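Sequence, please.
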């Protein structure tokens, strides 16, 4: 379990730094907390500071976003997908899309071996199993939309 937390922490910190620290990094169990990510401190030393305990309630972040009426275009979950308390995540994602942003794109990066799913098949939800530097590239392309990527490939074929 601790390995999954550390893996998720490293990935989250890398993601936050790659985005120029413009996003927010939240950690959750039965409570929600925000992690301040530094561009100066090492990724591993920051990841070591992230601790978790208690049950896992994936709805913590989305419920907070609904309460704050905070509009996001992209939400990235880094998880082993083992929820053991709270309601199903998709219930709150659907509510968020109804109340705040119908076009929210949800990315779930699964760092565990379970291969379960938090959400049913949904056109605005992507799963990444495992992670690498390519996972960040995929999320970036999917967030921008694949239309531009298809256009670039078509232009290359015309040359």
């Amino acid at each position: 379990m601790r390995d999954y937390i550390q893996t998720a922490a490293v990935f989250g910190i890398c993601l936050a730094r790659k985005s120029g620290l413009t996003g927010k990094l939240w950690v959750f169990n039965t409570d929600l907390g925000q992690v301040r990510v530094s561009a100066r401190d090492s990724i591993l030393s920051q990841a070591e500071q992230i601790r978790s305990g208690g049950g896992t309630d994936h709805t913590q972040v989305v419920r907070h976003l609904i309460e704050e009426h905070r509009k996001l275009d992209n939400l990235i979950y880094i998880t082993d997908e083992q929820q053991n308390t709270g309601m199903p995540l998709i219930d709150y994602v659907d509510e968020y899309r109804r109340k705040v942003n119908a076009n929210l794109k949800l990315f779930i990066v699964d760092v565990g071996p379970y291969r379960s799913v938090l959400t049913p098949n949904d056109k605005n939800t992507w799963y990444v199993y495992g992670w690498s530097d390519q996972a960040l590239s995929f999320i970036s392309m999917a967030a921008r939309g694949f239309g531009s990527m298809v256009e670039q490939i078509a232009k290359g074929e015309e040359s």
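The first strand starts at residue 25 and ends at 28.
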